[in-house]
Structure formats: C-alpha cells, structure tokens
Write a structure and sequence with these properties.
Helices cover 48% and strands 22% of the residues. The protein is an alpha+beta fold and 104 residues long. It has a single domain, classed as YaeB-like fold, CATH 3.30.2310.20.
C-alpha cells in the first residue's frame, strides 16, 4: 500500500485541479485525474524515483523531488518518514514565485 502525506497547500492545489477538470470533456478530464492519482501512489511506493530539485532542497533544507504528470508537476519532500507532497502545479504557472510565497 502506497503511503504519503498531502500538505494543506497540495490538498488545495488538487481541489482546484479537480474543479478545473470538471469543466473539461469527460474523457480527457478522467485521464488526467487518473494519472495524478496513479502518480501520487507511485510517489508513496517509490519516492526516490522523482527528479531531485537542488534549488528547492537548498531553500527548504531538506530533500525535494518532483514528478511530472503533464501538464502538472508534483513536488514533495523525501526527508521525512513518509513522502510529503507540498505542491501540485500546472507547468504554465510561475512555479518559482508560487513556491517562494509558500515558503517565506
């Protein structure tokens, strides 16, 4: 069983994504939602398969990795007992600014 933590920010990101997907045609919306759910479980099973993010690791002082589910990127910490997902963001957004605001 895959286990992970979902921060309040990531939970809000996911809620916003799912609300957005409700306005899309059913088939692509279901595909994206299923891909996100599958990746969250993969992170819980194999957190070290994600791409390391050295800039965020330096900023937060703990190892940060990310996984891509086009067009979204999932960011998470691996230095805790369970991986903690702290952001799920669309690739077209200003990810650096959003994460800077969250961790100031």
């Amino acid at each position: 069983m895959a286990r992970f933590l979902l921060s309040l920010d990531a939970e809000q990101d996911l809620d916003e994504i799912l609300s957005y997907l409700d306005g899309l045609p059913r088939v692509p919306a279901e595909r994206i939602a299923m891909s996100l759910q599958t990746m969250l479980h993969h992170i819980g099973q194999e957190p070290y398969l994600g791409a390391a993010n050295s800039a965020l690791t330096l900023l937060l002082g703990e190892e940060v990795r990310s996984r891509l589910v086009p067009p979204y990127r999932i960011f998470y910490r691996t230095s805790r007992k369970l991986p903690e997902i702290f952001a799920i963001l669309h690739g077209a957004r200003d990810i650096s600014s959003i994460l800077d605001q969250r961790f100031q």
